[in-house]
Amino acid sequence: MKIGTIASHSALNIVSGAKAEGFDTVLYCQPKRREFYESFGLGKSIVEVESFDEILDLDTEDVIMIPHGSFVAYIGADKILKSDLNLYGNKELLKWEEDRELKSRLMKESGLRVPKEFDSADDIDTPVIVKTYGAAGGEGYFIAKDKEEAISKMDPDEKYGIQQYVVGTKVFVTYFNSLSKERIEVFGADIRYETDADANLRFDEKPSFVVIGNLPLVLRESTLVRYFNMGKNFVRGFEKLNGETIPGPFCIETIIDREQNIYTFEFSGRIVAGTNIWIPHSPYSYLQFGEKMWMGKRIARELKELIEDDALEDALLPK
Ligand SMILES: Nc1ncnc2c1ncn2[C@@H]1O[C@H](COP(=O)(O)OP(=O)(O)O)[C@@H](O)[C@H]1O
Ligand SMILES: [Mg+2]
């Protein structure tokens, strides 16, 4: 089997890791990005496509496809769910991620503390962040300090998700659920730097939350223990609701307030770009493996072990 992905997001991370573990690799790449990926020595892996959804029509039977954020954004969860791609991870989770109600059900079932949600603007009793339905990348969101301000900013014909605005530090933690080693590994933490919410100066009340990049974060060890348990509970919560596990990488997206309460507002059931800062290894992956171990390589190591154990199918869900 080969390892493949589309040329964006964390493709350098994924493909370099697969090569390091001895896999043949495929990088589905648009012509405009060929030169960039060639400059990293990945020219031989490139299969050119004009648009990423062309991969649905290619013969990919011998390719284990690694989904990442752009993968979902470009091809769409619907098409991916219906496809017969050999997708590493649990495709079903894409649905839970996209749907606001399923998303918060899963976080609650996992025992995670979530920001208070308001079904109606009339119930608002805290500062809030108002998220337009269907909007992504934090665009089209706004904040309001109270009920009156929120109502004055809302369009009565629009559907919104209204959440308590949690003041604190954003913390994104990535995990790896290894079926081969039967353990959850906490891989690394980062802060997503978002414009212009993270800018020092801004002259309006409509911050945008578009991610610019990621900053490394090493948590207090006592805090890391809490996250470790949250990761375990998250996988258990999903197993309880869905009956199947979450193989491989996933991320829990949180804000810690001044009382050190950890609020989870989102998750990603796949590799996140925050792992790109941990090439060649994170502090934790180094301690776990005693060698260079970045997320792309971690994925390939797991796949290699599963193939050796004739258990690859367990990691391509649903069956
Ligand atoms: N409840 C909240 N309190 C404070 N900030 C929040 C809250 N929810 C989201 N944010 C901020 O808004 C950003 C985008 O929200 P998110 O729910 O992740 O939307 P998207 O689906 O667009 O990624 C987050 O990265 C975070 O900075
Ligand atoms: Mg988000």
Description:
This protein is α/β, with parallel strands linked by helices. It has three domains: 2-87, Rossmann fold (3-Layer(aba) Sandwich); 96-113 and 167-317, ATP-grasp fold, B domain (D-amino Acid Aminotransferase, Chain A, domain 1, 2-Layer Sandwich), CATH 3.30.470.20; 117-164, 2-Layer Sandwich (Dna Ligase, domain 1). Helix content is 30%, strand content 27%. It has helices spanning 11-20, 34-38, 69-75, 77-82, 92-98, 100-109, 147-153, 221-242, 283-289, 295-308, and strands at 2-6, 25-29, 46-48, 63-65, 86-87, 89-90, 117-118, 128-132, 142-144, 160-164, 169-178, 183-196, 209-217, 248-256, 262-268, 316-317. The chain has a five-stranded parallel beta sheet with strand order 3-2-1-4-5. The protein is globular. The mean pLDDT is 95. Magnesium ion binds at residues 253, 266.
List the SSEs and their pairings.
Layout: E1 2-6, H1 11-20, E2 25-29, H2 34-38, E3 46-48, E4 63-65, H3 69-75, H4 77-82, E5 86-87, E6 89-90, H5 92-98, H6 100-109, E7 117-118, E8 128-132, E9 142-144, H7 147-153, E10 160-164, E11 169-178, E12 183-196, E13 209-217, H8 221-242, E14 248-256, E15 262-268, H9 283-289, H10 295-308, E16 316-317
Parallel strand pairs: 1-2, 1-4, 2-3, 4-5, 6-16
Antiparallel strand pairs: 7-10, 8-9, 8-10, 11-12, 11-14, 12-13, 14-15
